[in-house]
Amino acid sequence: MKIGIYPGCCFQGADIHNYDITVNFLENMGVEWVLLDKAACCGGGVIDETNKKIVYGLNARNIALAEEKGVDLYTPCNTCYMVIARTKLALDSDPKLKDKINELLAEEGLEYKGEAKIYHTLNLIRDFIGLENYKSKIKRKLSAKVAPYYGCHVLAPNETAIDDPENPTLLREILEPLGVEIIEGYKNEMTCCGYHARFTDPEQKERLAVKPLEGAKEAGADLVATPCPLCHKAMDGYEEPILQVTQLINLACGNSEKEAHLDFNKTKVNLKLS
Amino acid sequence: MKKIKYTARIKRYDPDTNKSYFQDFEVEVEDSLTVLELLMYIKDKIDSTLTFRAFCRSAICGSCAMIINGRAGLACKIQAKDKIKNGVITIEPLNHLPVVRDLVVDQEPAFNKLKKVKPYLVPDPKVVPDNTKVESLVLPEEFKRYDKQTDCILCMACYGQCNALEGDEKYLGPFQLVKAFRFIMDTRDGVDVEERIKLVEDHGIWDCVQCQMCLAACPKGIAPCDDILELRRIAKDTGEENIATRRAKFWFATVYETGQIDKFHLPEVAFGDERGKEITKKLEEEFKSRGMSEDEFAPKPFEGIEKFRNFIKKLEKEL
Ligand code: SF4
Ligand code: SF4
Ligand code: FES
Fold this sequence. Notes:
By secondary structure, chain A is of the alpha/beta class. Chain A contains nine helices and ten strands. By secondary structure, chain B is an alpha+beta fold.
């Protein structure tokens, strides 16, 4: 069981600790990994504003790098997941596009075959690690009221959605074994965090980020848990705390708060561990 | 045909009392019903006051968009039995529009926004003949650029699901921007691209959060989110200078240089003012306090970057 870690922008600069969180998570789960060290930015929905074709090429290459190593591709980021998975759909349904890109990839000795699967933390746990196996790795319980927050790009578009977009349950299934109490059905639980407006309309981002947090607080949650490092970044720093699901999993698998990088949160979190 | 039993949980609104509430209808009906047929059954057999809008029953008139289990779609296109979750199907009016009664919303505010983008062809005299004897030709490859977009039936499902409207009720809206894109791409249109872009900037293309919900909602397979990125590209390429276009240019340039976006310098470049410098400076302090060395602040090119750059150049030229 080996997986290829795709390094997106959530692993660099002020977010460099996300790499540690990801590696610790995989090690806690007993998953072997290899870093796709020559992978490039997925485009983040921004390179489309230069040229959409480049986005196809970039991600065909990213997937080809995983295939070269004989592994599937794993990214913890909702947006990277969605952009790469959408590219895969486009390539697999358009042989001409695929052939043309493969011609260009050949110069780097790469080929997009379409064999590698695209994983995000949520489907990695369900389909690659397996929920039962996942539960068996948990060593201690966390006590807190937690509001699951999926973020948009694991539930839309429908073709790449990881769970039933209308009635997702996977995040609850992943959080429950950690011992936490789940708060669902809170106000604005499906409202976007606004991350992608940070550098197009910063006020828009501010108005949106706080909405799900306020809803969760109103419903009595101690914290919000999201799988997505970008949602985390967008929503950290307000009154209600937010953490990444993998941070909580790492804690439950025995990592210390420091190892789980809780100290980098702007809004501090109080968790009881048993 | 099999009969099935389930609960239709419908959001009601009575304008006379100004009360809004959910009402449960227990039904036992054939399993082949569309959501629209389910509503018609309830109106016919249980409660004749239930109000909704529909006409064609075949996903073409665009009247029957509503929120089904939290997701916008056409009631006449969706099979009710696919939507039963734990014995319940939940039906609500579209979001972001005033409710008239029950599932009927007032579409006027969204149409008024549509009018702002000049949603019509202004014939270009250089292309469109001034008499009816000669045809105005559009080549198949020209039409391909906006073929899909002409399928829009103005159902407003995308509008009812849009996250940008959650943050800004003045946001123009997804289908309105699709329309703007469609006329920019039309070879017969005589309005300057710059002018058409001006029409979509205020509470428009820069407000979108790229959540992809409009794509998920559209019954015609249109992707407003993608067209919005195209509109931003066109705005940038026609010389628009703002935080977003600076970010887009910098993003591509640094990915070309190193394979990754340089998030450290991004705020400084994108904001292009003191505010951006401040953010980048704060980042620098944070990095130092974490004990990071200066060459860790921004991404470095990976081994074999020359070949990668070549690849990008060829993608731009040859694809
Ligand atoms: S991608 Fe943009 S236009 Fe589409 S629903 Fe989201 S915010 Fe609205
Ligand atoms: S773009 Fe699609 S969802 Fe939006 S109004 Fe047109 S047909 Fe309806
Ligand atoms: S009734 Fe015409 S689109 Fe549904």
